[in-house]
Design goal:
With 245 residues, the chain is an alpha+beta fold. It has helices spanning 21-46, 56-60, 63-78, 83-96, 112-126, 133-143, 145-156, 204-212; strands spanning 18-19, 101-103, 160-172, 176-182, 192-198, 218-228, 236-244. The protein has 3 domains: 21-81, no CATH class; 108-143, no CATH class; 144-244, Beta Barrel (OB fold (Dihydrolipoamide Acetyltransferase, E2P)), CATH 2.40.50.
Length: 245
């Protein structure tokens, strides 16, 4: 279920499993003026010297406001930034402008029947009662029909940058790791996102992490570029990763 109080991406200190610094620097360079202005505007709205949320345009209407804004702009530009900080600022900007597709851990539960079904299955599982998973998936397919149809349309037209969060399953091959995540859980034939990571592109610590998960899902956020969306011939979205954390 969606969490309306969810924090923005990379709002907290983050350990990266994978980071393509060259791609981050390239994307940041393409949008640097807009990103910088957005960051300074946000700081202007939330600084301790400005007690309430205000329209930045109103600040710029006064000479004092323009001077204050320019000082923050100069300070921001002069502050050295790591690639990780640039990524945070970039993702915040892209998300705020609607320039990035985002997918959370699960679809929004719209149906009361579906909520009741999930609650009932959780209670039965708690008492160790065996359930017919095939029938449950078929029932979810019917209850989730509207949401699944909207998701299918969105994935068919999906392209460009995307941020996909949730539980990923890891397949280990000789020279790479294949990460897969279904876009909807516990339904029949869900569309899946897939990424490929070459082992030599990862640190020893990251390789140890992926080697150690086994059959268990690992909760990750993946920022990347969609190369292939779903089609009648394929249920898989291919994603080129830029950052995994």
């Amino acid at each position: 279920m969606a969490d309306n109080k969810k924090k923005p991406p990379l709002a907290e200190p983050t350990i990266f499993l994978f980071l393509d610094k060259e791609l981050v620097e390239s994307l940041y360079g393409q949008r640097e003026p807009e990103v910088v202005l957005a960051e300074v505007a946000e700081e202007t709205k939330t600084t301790d010297t400005v007690k309430v949320q205000i329209d930045v345009q109103k600040v710029l209407e006064t000479s004092a406001g323009r001077e204050q804004y320019q000082k923050r702009l100069s300070s921001y530009k002069a502050t050295p930034k790591t690639t990780e900080r640039k990524l945070r600022d970039l993702v915040w900007y892209l998300q705020g402008k609607g320039l990035i597709s985002t997918f959370g851990t699960s679809l929004e539960f719209q149906s009361d029947d579906l909520k009741n079904l999930n609650s009932a299955t959780e209670q039965l599982a708690r008492y160790g009662i065996v359930q017919d998973q095939q029938k449950l998936r078929a029932l979810r397919d019917r209850l989730f029909a509207q949401e699944l149809a909207a998701l299918e349309k969105r994935l068919t037209n999906l392209k460009g940058l995307a941020l996909i969060e949730g539980d990923w399953f890891v397949e280990v091959t000789t020279d790479s790791y294949i990460l897969r995540k279904p876009f909807a859980a516990d339904v029949s034939n869900p569309a899946t996102c897939e990424i490929k990571l070459h082992k030599n592109s990862l640190t020893p610590q990251s390789r140890d992490t992926l080697e150690g998960v086994g059959r268990k899902p690992v909760r990750l956020a993946v920022f990347g570029n969609v190369t292939i969306g779903i089609s009648p011939a394929s249920r898989t979205v291919q994603l080129t990763p830029i950052a995994i954390y």
